[in-house]
Amino acid sequence: MPLLPRLGVAAALLGLMPLLGSTGCDVSGDLACTEIGCSDGYTVSLVAADRFPDGVYEIAINGDNTPEGCRFEVADGRLLDDETCNAAYGIGPTFPTPEAVGITYPMITSEIEIVVSRDGAVIERLATTPVYETIQPNGPDCDPACRVAGAEFFVD
Known about the structure:
Elements: E1 4-7, H1 9-12, E2 41-48, E3 55-63, E4 66-75, E5 78-80, E6 88-92, E7 100-105, E8 112-118, E9 121-128, E10 133-135, E11 146-155
Parallel strand pairs: 2-11
Antiparallel strand pairs: 1-11, 2-7, 3-4, 3-8, 4-5, 6-7, 8-9, 10-11
């Protein structure tokens, strides 16, 4: 069954979710910024209802003619780490049996094409114009400010 894409900034925030609960600013009125960091980027998230089907997954992303890619393998429901990702690579909520894999590419692009394959067969292709959201993990009056966007695909 093919993956079902759903665009949204929520996918881009997969790795930042634990950090976004705090504004980083003092409620007493004095500005006290924390030093939580963030990076501009586009996140591709693969989400499984229970666990990932076994196989070799490849995500190819092309933003404004700048190709990037990531490859990882799932065997017996366990994620086998692969060092081919030129991206921030996160899994959750349980390791080593992932229910979600988020790959954030450090790019801001006006057009993006994503190809997801499993065992060499394309299971989803998406071309879109990203809509970026600016986030400030330390609060609205604190640096940094980062632009994020993403796409989420469901693995059956």
